Amino acid sequence: MDVSPVAARRSVAALALVAGAFLFSAQETPAQQKVVYHFNQGDLRVWKAGLMNVRNHLESASPDRARIVAVLHGPSLDMVHKGKSHPEVLRLIEELKAQGVQFRICRMTVNRLNIDPERDLYDCKPSDLVPSGVAEISRLQQLGYAYIRI
User: Fold this and answer.
1) Residue 28 CB neighbour total at 10 angstroms
2) Rounded to whole angstroms, how far apart are CA atoms 94 and 27?
3) Is the distance from CB of 69 to CB of 145 less than 8 angstroms?
């Protein structure tokens, strides 16, 4: 079977593209992924979907290869508000924390809503509070964290 020179060049070019894409993707996998997930909505469906995204991220990257921080501010504080959250959300948060995900909470929102973090927020330690949620996101991005908005 005779193959025209044009067809042969196209076949070689296509193989080179496929091989190059494979090598590029293999070389571009970082030793550790650093990601900040930005939560700022007051919608249960959004919270659950976002937390499931974090879980899926951990499963695909493995917890030892991913450093994930979830920053909560504004209406998303209801995710961890003892009187407003939902048991399934709290279970997901517990599961993610057990795998090393850090949850950072905006002190400005806490103050604006007159919330006592120790009394009103689920599993909130003083070290979980940051001065400002958006400033924390910016700080993490400057440290090389990828940004994902939920």
Assistant:
1) 7
2) 34
3) yes
Residue 89 burial (CB count, 10 A): 19
pLDDT in tens, the chain (150 residues): 566 665 556 654 555 555 555 555 555 556 789 999 999 999 999 999 999 999 999 999 877 889 999 999 999 999 999 988 899 999 999 999 999 999 999 999 999 999 999 999 999 999 999 999 999 999 999 999 999 999
User: For residues 47-78, b (16+ Cβ closer than 10 Å) or e, as one string?
Assistant: beebbeebeebbeebeeeebbbbbbbbbbbbb
**Nearest alpha carbon to residue 39 among 83, 119, 96, 87:** 96
What is the H or E stretch that residue 56 is in?
Answer: helix 44-61
Secondary structure element (H or E) that encloses residue 139, with its range: helix 133-142
Report d(CA 28, CA 93) in Å as an integer. Answer: 30
Give the angle 117-96-48 at the CA atoms, nearest 5°.
Answer: 80
Torsion sign across C-alpha atoms 81, 82, 83, 89: positive
Rounded-to-integer distance, Cα 132 and Cα 122, Å: 19
pTM: 0.79
